[in-house]
Design brief:
The two termini are 29 Å apart. Strands 2, 3, 4, 5, 6, 7, 8, 9 and 10 form a nine-stranded antiparallel β-sheet that branches. It contains eight helices and 14 strands. Helix content is 29%, strand content 27%. It has two domains: 176 residues, 2-Layer Sandwich (Arylamine N-acetyltransferase fold), CATH 3.30.2140; 62 residues, no CATH class.
Length: 269
C-alpha cells in the first residue's frame, strides 16, 4: 500500500499554487466558510471520483506526495481516501483546521459497512464546524454544518446531520448515507481498509469501473465504454462508445490520458 506519514508537512507554496490551478480556484484571503465552500465546489467540478487505477494495476499510495503526484501532476482522480486525504492537505496549507474522520456507509437502512469504509473531513471555522466531503460520489456540493440538525438545502439535495450516541448520521433526501465517528484519525488509519477495497473480490471497487464528476448542472460518468450524462432532474442519457472513443473521452471530458482502457467484468450500471 505504500508509506503514509503520520504528521505530514503541509504542501509547499508552489504545490499549493499548482493545486489551486488544477481545480481552477484562487487562494482565499482567509479560512472562512465562503472560501471553504468555493474550494469544495471547485474540487468536485475538477477532480473526478474514479477507481481506474485498481483495474490498471496501479498501486494506491496514501502518502501525501504520492497523492499530489496523482491528483495534481497527473491530473487524475481517486476515491475517498485519496480525494479527501489530499484535500485536507490543501486546506491545512491554506490555514484551515482540519480533522480526518472515519465513517461507515449505510448499505441498507439497518446495515452498515465495515469500519473505516469512508473518509470525510471536519473543518473547524470561527462560526462552527463543517463537514467537507469531496470523495463520496453524488453528494453535497458545499460543506454542511455539523452543529445544525435542521435540514440543509444543497444542489445535491436536502441533507440532515443528526446525533446518534457518539456518532453523527448524515442523510441525503431522507436516506441515511453514512455514520460519522467523532474521533480524530490519521491517514494511516485508513490503509488496511483501503487495501481491502483495492484487492478484495468483495469490494465493489474491484467489481465495477467508474469515473464521474458533477457538472454545473447534472453529472457526467464514464463506466467502461458507456458515457452517462445525468441531467439535474435525474434524466439519464447513455451513449455507447467504442474503445477508442472511450479513451478519447477520458482525455476530453475528464482531463487525463490513460495508457489503455481498464478491464472489468461488471461495469457500474
Amino acid at each position: 500500500m505504500g508509506r503514509v506519514e503520520q504528521h505530514p508537512d503541509t504542501l509547499a507554496p508552489a504545490q499549493v499554487d499548482a493545486y489551486l490551478a488544477r481545480i481552477g480556484a484562487v487562494r482565499p484571503a482567509s479560512p472562512d466558510h465562503a472560501a471553504l465552500a468555493a474550494l469544495h465546489r471547485a474540487h468536485l467540478l475538477a477532480v473526478p471520483f474514479e477507481n481506474l487505477g485498481i483495474h490498471l494495476g496501479e498501486p494506491v499510495d496514501l502518502a501525501p506526495d504520492a497523492l499530489y503526484a496523482k491528483l495534481v501532476e497527473r491530473r487524475r482522480g481517486g476515491f475517498c481516501y485519496e480525494l479527501n486525504g489530499l484535500f485536507a492537505e490543501l486546506l491545512r496549507a491554506l490555514g484551515f483546521r482540519v480533522t480526518l474522520l472515519a465513517a461507515r456507509v449505510y448499505a441498507a437502512p439497518d446495515r452498515l459497512t465495515i469500519p473505516f469504509d469512508h473518509l470525510a473531513l471536519r473543518v473547524d471555522l470561527a462560526d462552527g464546524p463543517r463537514l467537507a466531503d469531496v470523495g463520496f460520489g453524488s453528494f453535497v456540493r458545499e460543506p454542511l454544518r455539523l452543529d445544525l440538525t435542521a435540514p440543509q438545502q444543497d444542489q445535491g439535495g436536502s441533507f440532515t446531520v443528526r446525533p446518534d450516541g457518539e456518532y453523527l448520521v448524515v442523510s441525503q433526501d431522507g436516506e441515511a448515507q453514512y455514520r460519522l465517528e467523532q474521533q480524530p484519525r490519521q491517514l494511516a488509519d485508513f490503509v488496511p481498509t483501503c487495501w481491502w477495497h483495492t484487492t478484495s473480490p468483495g469490494s465493489h471497487f474491484t467489481r465495477s469501473l467508474i469515473c464521474s464528476r458533477p457538472l454545473a448542472e447534472g453529472r457526467l460518468s464514464l463506466s467502461g465504454t458507456r458515457l452517462i450524462h445525468t441531467a439535474a432532474d435525474g434524466t439519464r442519457t447513455v451513449e455507447e462508445l467504442t474503445e477508442a472513443e472511450a479513451l478519447a473521452a477520458y482525455d476530453e471530458r475528464f482531463g487525463f490520458t490513460l495508457p489503455r482502457l481498464p478491464e472489468v467484468l461488471h461495469p457500474a450500471p
